[in-house]
Automatic annotation (TrEMBL):
Xref: PROSITE patterns: PPR
Residue spans of the PPR repeats: 187-221, 300-334, 335-369, 376-410, 412-446, 447-481, 482-516, 517-551, 552-586, 587-621, 622-656, 658-692, 693-727
Superkingdom assignment: Eukaryota
Record-given protein name: Pentatricopeptide repeat-containing protein
InterPro entries xrefs: PPR-containing_protein, PPR_rpt, TPR-like_helical_dom_sf
Length: 762
């Protein structure tokens, strides 16, 4: 028979002749058995080819009788696998659906077997439809057809629908298929497909509903490694478009998966713990690690290190010790990173001796010699930096020499930088330069950090010219300065009021194409504003904006102060308006600057309007606010208004008056010959614990002299001696013009010698 069929295929004879030859013939059972054993694949392909040949004409021309004889005459012939393969090779889903209808109408197999045939055939219908144009609508219509005809989906058909609807974003259709899924079709593979698609669509809650069913103890379709591979990476997603898993959901999932022996791989587990630790959610990080440990999952040192890093940043030594104990209990060996984390934490909390104990322990091989961890250059650098931070630079230097002599690891650029910085911090610039020279001798290339450390140290200790020489020297040796270098130099020259030199470095920075940061601009803006060079400051602001930066509240305050000092109130207002437009709210410094300027200019009405705006913005006046207004009232010879504001401040404000405010009022009252009121303020100062200074006493001495209140003056002279408040040239000028005239020269001499005027000299 095979020879005849092959011959017919080769000669491409007519369909009618083929159908005649394909009439079923009884083959002896033994021969059929031998044929199946010898050429199973060929027989299967032959059967499929025969069926496809019969299905080639249009559906209306099918020879139904011949098709029935081929498909159903032999009980062993109609298998789900064969029908699936036949239907798959048809040229359209509509033709496959016609075959499905034919099988449904002509099969007289038992319900179980017939259902399997129909489900397999319908799977092929769906597969073909998914590859046709406008498949989205067609695919769901076909699914509805299967429901109407009571044909359960195969597992592969369900997975196909999930994938297709997921790609098209058809969440509602996907959920219909999932909710109506026949229980016989549900298995771990199908659930995995649904979860994968739902998570990719961002439908976290729907995916969790499926997972809940899988994770039930003793469930019919428990999770497997594939489920874990789908779910665990999604726990790390942080995109805004994706509904992030809640902390308790992540912890719960890791724990429940662990009950089924499924765990995140070491990379994902480490990243989960890192994310929680970065967000300072140490309880969650701990619970995730604990869940994997307690369920018997594999935990590597890196995962423990991730939690140790977070705990170290929060200085939680108790939990760090607990985690180290857990690692020991489960034989998770600490590595060089583990000890590096511990020592770094100890050094940052200035527990350097404890860090040195840990270092000595690992050099000896760990506890009982069980851990062979060799300290690396990072650990040495951590310890050297820690020693320098607590003023033990010499010990740090010895440790570097130990590195060289023991040849355990070679010092690197960071090692030298730590020591240079350490000696700079204590003002030992020459020692820092010696280490820099040693660095060059050891052929260790300096970095821009080395340059910045040395330049900063020199500038801080007044050696700006030496810093510039070093900067120029290193520039020629290919160590180019960065934004931080220029910021240090610009700030240093601004601090000594050499603005022209600061501007030179700014221009040099711009011309060399150095990648700048906002700090450089802020430094120069501040220096120019303090020097009153507001045109230059405005030019730097323009360059700052061209570079893509924006002003912060501190820079705005500096500029507003500079414009006020140079009497450019219109520019100050412009800055205020610009602040509001960029969304930066004025703070108390901003308001105090403007109020102080207006007060000095006698524009009290405007100053009060600004004060009211400040209150409307929810900012409370400070001692500076009150001081500016009180001083303005006193300058305008309106001490009554000044005293009212003072009393309001004293009773209603949480900030008590300071010495400056008392001095302003006392001086003003004494000038108006209201000495008694000034004296009451002196008493008020004592009650409130505000200490008078030389300026306070000078104001009182003037008032007492003008009113010839000698005894009170002598009393205040004794107070100054008792409080070690030294007289200045104004004090001496007032008293030397007054006391000799009233024959108190002896008391004046005792006072100037530091003795009480009411007691005899020793």
């Amino acid at each position: 028979m095979r020879r005849i069929i092959k011959s017919l295929y080769a000669t491409n004879q007519s369909s009618k002749t083929l159908l005649h030859l394909l009439q079923p013939r009884r083959t002896p059972p033994l021969l059929r058995h031998l044929s199946a054993e010898s050429h199973p694949l060929n027989d299967d392909e032959t059967f499929i080819s025969q069926a496809l040949q019969l299905l080639q004409p249009p559906e209306s021309e099918w020879n139904v009788e011949q098709l029935r004889n081929l498909l159903f005459s032999d009980p062993e012939t109609p298998s789900p696998k064969r029908l699936l393969r036949i239907a798959r090779r048809l040229d359209s889903s509509s033709k496959a659906l016609k075959l499905f209808d034919y099988v449904r109408e002509n099969s007289d197999l038992p319900d179980d077997s017939n259902g399997e045939l129909l489900s397999s055939t319908f799977q092929a219908v769906l597969e073909l439809a998914s590859r046709e144009p406008s498949w989205e609508k067609r695919l769901f219509e076909l699914y509805t057809t299967s429901r109407d005809r009571n044909v359960p989906l195969t597992a592969n058909a369900a997975t196909l629908l999930f994938g297709c609807f997921g790609r098209a974003g058809m969440r509602n259709e996907l959920m219909v298929v999932l909710e109506k899924l026949d229980s016989s079709c549900k298995n771990t593979h199908v659930c995995n497909g649904a979860i994968d698609v739902l998570l990719r669509l961002g439908c976290v809650d729907d995916a969790l509903h499926v997972l809940d069913e899988m994770l039930e103890p003793g469930g019919k379709f428990p999770p497997n490694e594939v489920t874990g591979d789908i779910v665990f990476p999604m726990l790390l997603k942080r995109e805004r478009s994706f509904r992030r898993f809640k902390d308790e959901e992540i912890v719960g999932l890791v724990s429940r998966f662990g009950e089924h022996g499924v765990f995140p791989d070491t990379v994902i587990l480490t990243q989960l713990i890192t994310n929680f630790s970065r967000d300072r959610k140490f309880d969650c990080a701990w619970d995730v690690l604990d869940a994997v440990m307690n369920s018997g999952g594999s935990v590597v040192t890196a995962s423990c290190n991730a939690l140790l890093t977070g705990l170290g940043r929060s200085k939680d030594f108790k939990r760090m010790n607990e985690l180290m104990a857990k690692m020991k209990e489960r034989n998770i060996k600490p590595d060089v990173v583990t000890y590096g984390i511990l020592m770094n934490c100890l050094c940052k909390t200035r527990r350097i001796d404890k860090a040195l104990e840990v270092f000595a322990n690992i050099r000896d091989g760990g506890e009982n010699g069980m851990y062979s961890v060799k300290p690396d250059v990072i650990i040495y650098n951590t310890l050297i930096d820690g020693l320098c931070k607590v003023g033990r630079q010499e010990e740090g230097l010895k440790m570097m020499e130990q590195m060289k002599s023991e040849n355990c690891c070679k010092p690197n650029t960071i090692t030298y930088n730590c020591l240079i910085d350490g000696f700079n911090k204590v003002g030992e610039i020459e020692r820092a330069l010696e280490i820099f020279d040693q660095m060059k001798k050891d052929q260790m290339p300096p970095s821009v950090v080395t340059l910045n450390t040395l330049v900063d140290g020199m500038c801080r200790h007044g050696r700006v010219n030496s810093a510039v020489e070093l900067f120029n020297e290193m520039q020629t040796n290919s160590i180019k300065g960065n934004a931080h270098t220029y910021s240090i130099l610009i700030t240093a020259y601004c601090n000594v009021n050499n603005i022209d030199r600061a501007m030179e470095f700014f221009d040099q920075m711009v011309s060399t194409g150095c990648s700048t940061d906002a700090v450089v601009y802020y430094s120069l803006i501040s220096g120019l504003s303090v020097a009153g060079r507001m045109n230059d400051a405005s030019m730097v602001v323009s360059k700052l904006k061209e570079a893509g930066f924006g002003l912060d509240i501190i820079a705005y305050n500096v500029l507003i102060s500079g414009f006020c000092k140079t009497n450019k109130l219109d520019m100050a207002y412009k800055m205020l308006k610009e602040m509001e437009e960029t969304g930066i709210k004025p703070d108390i410094v901003t308001y105090n600057t403007v109020i102080s300027y207006l007060s000095k200019k006698g524009r009290l009405e405007t100053a009060h309007r600004i004060l009211q705006k400040m209150l409307n913005d929810g900012l409370a006046p400070t001692v500076v606010t009150y001081g500016a207004l009180i001083h303005a009232y006193c300058l305008n010879d309106n001490t009554d208004a000044a005293m009212k504001l003072f009393l309001k401040m004293s009773s209603g404000s949480k900030i008590p008056p300071n010495t400056v405010i008392y001095n302003i009022l006392i001086d003003s009252l004494c000038k108006k010959k209201e000495v008694e009121l000034a004296l009451s303020l002196m008493d008020d100062m004592k009650v409130k614990g505000v200490k008078p200074n030389t300026t306070t006493y000078n104001a009182m001495f003037k008032g007492l002299r003008d009113n010839n209140l000698l005894e009170k003056a002598l009393h205040f002279m004794d107070e100054m001696v008792e409080q070690a408040c030294n007289p200045d040239y104004i004090t001496i000028e007032i008293l030397t013009k007054w006391l000799p005239v009233v024959r108190k020269t002896h008391q004046l001499k005792k006072f100037l010698q530091g003795y009480s005027v009411s007691e005899p000299a020793a």
